[in-house]
Amino acid sequence: MLGPKGESMKERIALGVLGLVAASAAACGGTSPETKAPEASSTTAAPPAVARCARRHPGVGAVRADLSRKGGKVALVRLGDENLAYVADADDNSILTFDLDRGVARARTPVAGAPAQVLVLDDGRVAVTLRDANRIQVLEPAENHAQAALAPVCTQATPAEPFGIAATPDDQHLVVTSAWARKLTRFDAATLKPGRQHDLSREPRDVLVADDGSRAFVAHVVGGKVSVVDLEERRDAVRPIDIRVPVVNPSRGFAAGTKTTRESCQGFALAKTIPIPGALDPKRGRIFAPRVTIEPGDATRPSSGYGNAQFAKLEAPIISVVDEDAERNLTPALIGGMNRGKFGSSGSKGECLLPRAAATVTQRDSLLVACVGTNAVVEYDARGVDPSNLERRRWSVPAGPLGLAVDQSAQRAVVWSQFDRELSVIDLSAKGSTPSKIVSAPKAKVQKLSALEEKGRKVFHATDNPAISKDGRACASCHPDGREDALTWPTPVGPRQTIMLAGRLRGSAPFSWLGAHKSLKVHLDNTFERLGGTGLKDRADKADDDIDALIAYLEAMPAPVQRGALPDPRKAKLIARGEALFQDQAQGCERCHSGGGTDANQHKLAAPATPSFSPSPRADEGFDTPSLRFVGGTAPYFHDGRFATLEDLLMNPGGRMGHTLHLSRRDALALTAYLETL
Question: Top-level CATH class of 569-675?
Answer without folding.
Answer: mainly alpha
